[in-house]
Fold each of these.
Amino acid sequence: MTFSEFKASLTDPHPPHKASVLLQALWHDAKGDWNAAHQITQEINSQQGAWVHAYLHRKEGDQSNASYWYGRARQNMPTVSLEKEWEELVKGLLV
């Protein structure tokens, strides 16, 4: 799946069935369902999962919690927009 195909799937009622769990979380986030996205990431114990979790808390505005999760992900707190970080995450997970 390409980034363009993933973005196009946002018009669908459900995430792409071939998408990884973390991509599904980012799909829900892009659709405005932060809670579903957060619920998914809480179940993933990986560096990538921590990064998506960090992004979600940054988006929520909880900088302290985001900072904790960026640390777990071995990432610095981004200075890019949330939209740019979302795109970077999706593209990284599609590889």
Amino acid sequence: MIWRAEHKIYQLAVAKNIGFILPPTVVTNDTLAVQNFARNRDIIAKAVSSGYIDSPDGYRAMFTTALAPSDLKELEGLNLAPVIFQEKVVKLSDIRVTIIGGDIFVAEIMSQSHQSSQIDWRATEDPNIEHRPHKLPSEIEIQCLELVKRLGLEFGAIDLALTTKGQYRFFEINPNGEWLWLEDRLGFPIAEKIALWLS
């Protein structure tokens, strides 16, 4: 189940079917398709599968990246593998939803307060980036729980964006997402809930 749930294209299809709003998206290795998609919109790029690579400098993350107009003229190598391209979301903050069984813990990450974290909060240069507990609207909470259920999971870490218009946008779900920092920062009893589930 986890192997299937990790596939981002599959995740997007399931999330859309449930009713999540997704940013306009194309998955392609065609340069012209990307250039056409980027016409009259700002776009970002992200990996189709794993967001980590084994490089000569060690194992490192491939963060979501904003593409400038000049980048669209330098897409050599795109034909070797598809990439997810999405319309850039104008965010108020990032939302991390951690689900264990029927328990849900929601953190709001104030990513827009630092330039380094505005596109991908994991890239922040500020280790003390502000986190807050967050209350989701009931319909979004139900959609998060349904997504985990449909993917056949008991645990999931869902990444959403809260837009400047107060709307939620779905980015992805990680079936093995990190959570310990949320327990440290916000006191969420995630370890306790995992222990109870395992017992």
Amino acid sequence: MRAIAVSKYGAKPTIMDLPDPRPAPGEVLIKVSAAGVNPMDRSIANGAWSAQMDATFPLIMGADVAGVVEAVGAGATRFSPGDKVFGQLVVPPLGSTGTYAERIAVAQDANLAPIPVGMEPDTAAALPTAGGTALQIFDRLGSLGGMTMLLVGANGGVGSFLTQIAASAGANVIAVARASAAERLRTYGAVETVDYTKDSVMDHVRVGHPDGIDVLVDVANDADAFAALAKLVRKGGTALTTRYVADADALAGVGITGVNFAVALTPQLLTRLAGEVVAGRITTPPIREVKLDEVPDLYSEDALLGDGKTVIDLST
């Protein structure tokens, strides 16, 4: 089979011809239709997770998947051949269930859920990490009705989903994003947008919200930038980062709850997320489709990680 993999941490992703996996007892073999692209894919390939999990090389990249169960191993009963499934596969050793590949063999109890009838594979592949993270952040924050939320990185996958979810719950979302995404984010319910390439986010918020904001959600910044923006949060508020750069003790000292958020998806959450999309309560952000052959040349700093979601089409 063909796959996008790295030969060692930090190596450039390349197309490799690798042996087709076979399902061991308790596993399912998935023929991949589409693979979602996320920033963590690059981080894993560069070794950022090496202290957390062992890896196997070549390390096949990717975690988000949509596909069709092609075969099942002995004793596997959760899914049957022909079932359409989607999910997030971060399974040790890293690279053993990478989704930038034509086929994957994975334990049947992995984070997989049925694709709802009528949902296309590219949509399903765009959901797990970005949509699941947004939904879990919302669950973590609790009631947002009437609260002012500053959302940094709103134009990406997580931000696009969270803007909609928070706005639907009654939050006043200030979306920090490129100007090209401003109109889209307003259709999602953002009450304000800030183009960070032209305006100072700090100055914009201080002028418009002199009493501070209730919630900061930052999916983009480093420790220093996050700490600076956290000063905008009023006492009793929350400052959450997905980059794990919050000094929770320092924030607690000034009356702010600091959260270093790590997503922990479950099949139940994936089913709930897909249901929200099918019901029309959540809209998938713009999807850019690329072919497997295009991925190595496109894997520059921003080529695959711009506005919305990038999905690798492996259907043919």
Amino acid sequence: RPVVAVQHHHAHIAACLAENGRPAGAPPVVGIAMDGLGLGPDETVWGGEVLVADYRGYERAAALKPVPLPGGNAASREPWRNAYAHLCAAMGWPDAAAYADVPAIARLAAKPLPTLDAMMARGLNTPLSSSCGRLFDAAAALCLFAFDGQSYEGEAAMRFEAAIDRSALADPSEAYPFAIASEDGRLWIDPTPLWRCLLDDCRAGEPVGRVAARFHRGLSEAIVTVASRIARERGLDTIALSGGCFQNKALFSLVHDGLVSQKLSVLSHCRVPANDGGLSLGQAVVALAHVEGGLSCA
């Protein structure tokens, strides 16, 4: 039998299409794949992807703006590393350190930051990553959830979601800002603006539930804006949601409802896991499409 290589996030979207009975000859969809990580063909670590995809192939139309993963896999276990990397990318550590009265910043200052700086400067075990999961880890760590380390996969993000103030989440005005930039024919969802707002809230003593709500709403609105824009520009009317981050009910509901409000049809998981438990189905249907009709990936 032929061996078919299937990109991680393409498999996520293909699994969603297959579960929903999407015909093989149907037009492509805008596939939103948000998860922890999966290797991209450009040798960076993907995880916050907006693809234009069908069973046969995909195009990376948008993504979260990549930042380094200090320590590689260690960054998946220790959320403080992601918080530091995002703050350095967004404002530089000297500006972030000015928030010394914020408990998370004080705790970051006690970490071996010069070592991480040297690693990031040399590109040593610090792959670039567009991971949505690591973005959640960074925000959760700044609210002191699993700051030093996670005792199980997704702990920081799960505790961050559980802390949400539901009244704040329901308020459209409660959203941290994200920037959206276009470069080389691709859109980038840039979290840079949110970090100063989040630190300002922490300094002002805002309840963590409100901070969590603002983060979830801001991220969701950015995803909806980018996906709906791509759908309009490509003449597509269907969105597929997949990846482990969509096990987060708040994120899923906000993105789903936002897309529906844009008159878009939304496909999601019910019987097949949204996380990596559903990858094998996606790999199988992509391989089948390759064997029967060819596969083209961009």
